[in-house]
Amino acid sequence: MVYEYDGSYEGFLCCIYESYVNKEFPIAFAGNEEFPVLTLYPVRRVETDLTHSSRILRSIESRSNRAARLLYRAFHTCMADREACLYRFVRKLYADGPQFLRRTSDEACFPLYKAVRHLSGELEKLRGFVRFSDFGGILGAEIEPKNRVLPFLRGYFCSRYANESFFLYDRTHGELLLYSGGRSRIVQADSLTLAPPDEQETRYRKLWKTFFDTVAIADRYNPRCQNTFLPKRYRATMTEFQSESVFIPEASPADAPLPSAPDGIPAPVTLPGSAPPAPGSCI
Amino acid sequence: MDLLDKLTILTDAAKYDASCTSSGVKRGSRPGMIGNTSSSIAGCCHSFSADGRCISLLKVLMTNYCVYDCKYCVNRRSNDTRRTAFTPRELAELTIQFYRRNYIEGLFLSSGVLRDPDYTTLRMIESLRLLRQEYGFNGYIHAKAIPGTSPELVQRLGYLADRLSVNIELPSQKGLASLAPDKSKAAILAPMRLIEAQGRQNKEELVKYRHAPAFAPAGQSTQLIVGATEDSDRHILHLTESLYARYRLKRVFYSAYVPVVENPLLPALHTKPPLLREHRLYQADWLLRFYGFRAEELLDDQHPNFDPMLDPKCYWAITHPEQFPVEIMTADLDRLLRVPGIGPTGARRILSARRTGPLHFDDLKKMGIVLKRAQFFILCGGRMREGLRFTADSLALQLQAVERGSLPAPAAQQLSLFDATG
Predict the structure, then answer these.
(1) Phi, psi dihedral angles at B57 (to 5 degrees)
(2) Is B182 or B363 the better-scoring residue by pLDDT?
(3) CB distance B356–A162 less than 8 Å?
């Protein structure tokens, strides 16, 4: 049996519910609506029902809060065969109780721990490596993470920029975090075009690049050490590693009329079509 | 002079300071103010420069004018270099704009001595006051306390900054006398003692009155220059240990001396900075702070310097064979921490995991414990790792091989036909 669901965390919890109700062991999950599943197995379409998902969540939490947290984090990682691993983990939790969680090398929870460690590493890097630009008073940044990091960066950046308005766009997963006036939400956005930087913005970019280049001590030049701490995949979105063009202002950036982002946050970005509110932003 | 030139000059003058941390204080956002301090206790690195060092703070000097003539310093008055100074407003604007773009975690403000220490500190206080009060900056600030400043001013500085530091620079009185004739050991230690006493008093106040202003909540640190004078590693490590114990420093930084000036008292220009020695000192520093080692265990009179080919923990382990092997299933935390290759995180994971059942070498690997060093010193359930071959004599070489890729290649040696028989 292959389970098809909407790709959200709640949807996945509903899959667990369905497998319990129907006494089935799903062998695969399809969480992407866009592609019809090509398989010879029978397909069960699982509708997301919040009463079912919260029931499953409560029952997992009653067994172990730690397991619930691990499951939520692991769901947002990029691990191979993600849903199947998580499903095995939940089954084992129901069958054996939470004792095996301590045993980090256990085959049901090792893949989760490994993936969550990867996620935590990426989060720690991104907290520092995200580069915002000022678009006429609103801050905006783009990232290209491997994991779905936005739910976990949300609290950090909302607290850091509590009195600003900002957006953070995840290019890999097409998700957009919006924050303004104490409220934040995560929405889907398939693509996003940023307005070109104005003169003030390029001035600070240039100052930062100068600082970055000057602060290195030539006698201690050590690119290997730099690569270890700052892997090259992060550099595509970091100001100090960009080519000359991002340091040159472009004419009339702020004059062009810009569409508004949902929730009345005026964002200097172009969203194609209207973005539906994201499911799964409740935790 | 425009801001870009000023930033270049004053960054260039500040970059030899090793410390760049934003750790030790957790302060949430406040209404009407900009920013917070890092939500993780370990601080936050925002970039890594081409020398592999972390950039966490905007590290600049207030000014590089200086009345002192310390021989090792780029900013000494006899050096012919461009001089400039930030105005408090320029500095505040720069910090806020960098902070908003997530370039930095805060400001690291140091200064050359303009006129006298009190006047310089007053200017630093003015900048920080402007930044904190007018601009409402709530992020991290690290400020340098200049030796010779009057106690009231150090106190005022401490209420504006999160961390203070006083640089010892040269590890001995003799070095100071010859290379920094304007500074004395007493003048350096006085503010350090003051900050320690004030911090302790402030902790008591905060217990009684929750809204008492915090004095340097992230504590204080210092820096020692390694390789400018003849001091041994043993001397430096003992000094470090006593600084941690007596002044409760959060960190001691070591800075491999980069020759910036020709002077008969200093290493010649183009001498490579002793980076490996600095690395070994940091390794030993960690052993003191997190592993329960004492300085006299690591170095003694016969061995006043670290072995460049072997890290301090491995060296200690092979000179204390009576302590090993350690049984993973039964050893307590202190003994696990003495095993090369096992750190505080790994040791705690072992303690937690072994409660559920026996651990094997594969389990350790899955728990994230690197076995390339540890395998020689541990048993799992009474067994050594399968296929492991070593003798007491070969152990040192096998451990050296682990690190070989990152060490400088040893000089080639001509083999002799006759040594073995002699």
Answers:
(1) -125, 155
(2) B363
(3) no
